[in-house]
Write a structure and sequence with these properties.
It is a single chain. By secondary structure, this protein is mainly α. The chain has a single domain, classed as hpI Integrase, Chain A. 57% of the residues lie in helices and 7% in strands. A three-stranded antiparallel sheet has the order 1-2-3. α2 runs antiparallel to α4, α2 packs across α6 and α7 crosses α8. It is globular.
């Protein structure tokens, strides 16, 4: 993630700001591709630093966003309004260069393009950023139940896959607990 956000150059135009905002939003919130595509201006609450997403089975959830993510979203909205004029609160915020709502294949290709530039892992999709979000939370001490809620999972079993993939947490526990580590 450091390589993605620190070493890549994003253009300082609408497309570059949009792309960076999308990538950061996936990593900062763990939202699904379908949730990002449906995100509307009314779903952003900058005073509370939250976003509202409509998840699977029409289940609504509120996800916190850190101040830097809020600032990135506000910067994107500035570029969006500069290019297309004022946006309605019920309008999708992520749009193509022609102003039409983004669609899943466009986002998938965009994410892959940027991940191709910084990694050789086989899977380079929006879901990888969601997975990384959850794994990094777990590695840094977040409880599995909290991660479950942030991801919008209905069962803990769906979230437990992240516990099995977090080798860094296993190493940390080993180093802290084993007398000869």
């Amino acid at each position: 993630m450091g390589n993605l956000f620190d070493s890549l150059e994003f253009t300082d135009d609408f497309e570059g700001v949009r792309d960076r905002t999308i990538l950061e939003l996936f990593y900062a919130t763990g939202i699904r591709l379908s949730e990002l595509v449906q995100l509307k201006r009314e779903d952003l609450d900058f005073s509370r630093h939250t976003i509202k997403v409509m998840g699977k089975r029409k289940k609504e959830r509120i996800i916190p966003i850190a101040p830097p993510m809020a600032a990135q979203l506000q910067n994107y909205l500035f570029f969006l309004e500069k290019k297309f004029g004022n946006i309605d609160y019920n309008q999708n915020i992520f749009v193509t260069n022609s102003g039409k709502p983004v669609y899943p294949q466009l986002i998938y290709k965009m994410v892959r393009k940027y991940l191709d530039a910084v990694t050789t892992i086989d899977k380079r999709s929006p879901h990888v950023l969601r997975h990384t979000f959850a794994t990094h939370l777990l590695d840094n001490g977040a409880e599995l139940l909290a991660i479950k809620e942030l991801l919008g999972h209905t069962s803990l079993a769906a979230t437990q896959i992240y516990a099995g993939t977090s080798i860094e947490k296993i190493k940390k526990t080993y180093n802290q607990a084993h007398p000869r580590a």
